[in-house]
Specification:
Strand content: under 5%
Number of domains: 1
Oligomer: single chain
Largest sheet: none
Shape: flat
Distance between the termini: 20 Å
Radius of gyration: 20 Å
């Protein structure tokens, strides 16, 4: 165990980014499962099909896609365990990193159970939405882990005025509303994951408008937040508020384009990943509201 680091080094930083990247990748592959109508490519759980834990030639490409997505959870688990081992000797000095590294080690259980319920309920749109929401949470936790690796533990004082913190939390509320309404809207749309899967029965066109309103509000508030950070000269907040605004611009462009083109699969997949990136960037903005601790990472 002596080879394990006792301070933040290159290995920790690399696996922090790997943890975030692999969580975003599982969102992309999960989207591929739904968008290729492979949601029931493995029609049973925990086995892929009756009598086999792996896909069989008779199941075709849909079985390969769904089984590949299931396999990626084991890759996530390996990355999570290695990341935790890299942190374990810092557990007293950095309990924040210890817990942020420990949680993903158990995430495969949560995701596997949700995935199993999704299959067993014939891709119920609300269960599918909950499955995606769990992925958003795990992406956010991974982003917080990266942030803490680079900027150290939370400081006791705020480096920003109260009105700016209120603006940031209001922005976060609209970001959250955008993600939730996006999940509900997706549950009413054409990409069910399988031809026989049910939809939530809500008006998809109307929901698209409801989904866009908090998105535009979040963009306006984020822009105001960025301008305020620039005026006050809060460099770290400028960095992450700028990232947030940039993601929102791309997300809005993708959302408008996919709506006008009839929801093409590649754009829908991009929209899903961008939603997770949006939540992660918002988390970084909120973390940046506290006073900065200088020169933490080696």
């Amino acid at each position: 165990m002596k080879w394990l680091p006792t301070t933040i080094d290159r290995r920790v930083r690399v696996f922090a980014w790997l943890s975030l990247g692999i969580q975003l990748l599982i969102v992309l592959t999960g989207g591929a499962v739904r968008l290729t109508a492979s949601g029931l490519g493995c029609p049973t759980w925990p086995q892929c099909t009756d009598g086999s834990f792996v896909t069989t030639p008779e199941m075709g490409i849909h079985g390969v896609i769904e089984f590949g997505n299931r396999l990626l959870f084991f890759v996530i688990q390996i990355v999570a365990i290695i990341t935790f081992l890299l942190i374990v000797r810092m557990r007293k000095a950095r309990p924040d990193l210890f817990w942020l590294a420990l949680i993903p080690c158990f995430s495969i259980v949560l995701q596997a159970v949700l995935g199993g319920i999704t299959v067993l309920t014939n891709l119920n749109p609300y269960v599918v939405g909950l499955h995606f929401l769990a992925s958003v949470v795990l992406v956010v936790l991974s982003a917080v882990f990266v942030f803490r690796v680079y900027y150290g533990p939370r400081t006791d004082s705020f480096g920003t005025p109260g009105w700016l913190r209120a603006l940031a939390w209001t922005t976060a509320f609209f970001v959250f509303a955008t993600v939730i309404l996006g999940i509900i809207t997706t549950g009413s749309g054409p990409h069910a994951g399988d031809g026989g899967a049910s939809r939530n029965g809500l008006n998809s066109e109307l929901l698209q408008h409801f989904h866009s309103w908090p998105a535009y509000a979040a963009f306006a508030l984020s822009t105001g937040l960025l301008l305020a950070a620039l005026t006050l000269g809060i460099r770290r907040l400028v960095r992450f508020a700028g990232l947030l605004v940039g993601i929102e611009i791309v997300q809005i462009a993708v959302g408008l384009t996919q709506a006008r083109l009839g929801l093409p699969e590649p754009l829908v997949a991009a929209h899903m990943v961008l939603a997770c990136m949006l939540a992660a960037a918002m988390a970084a903005v909120l973390l940046s509201l506290r006073a900065e601790r200088q020169q933490w990472a080696d």
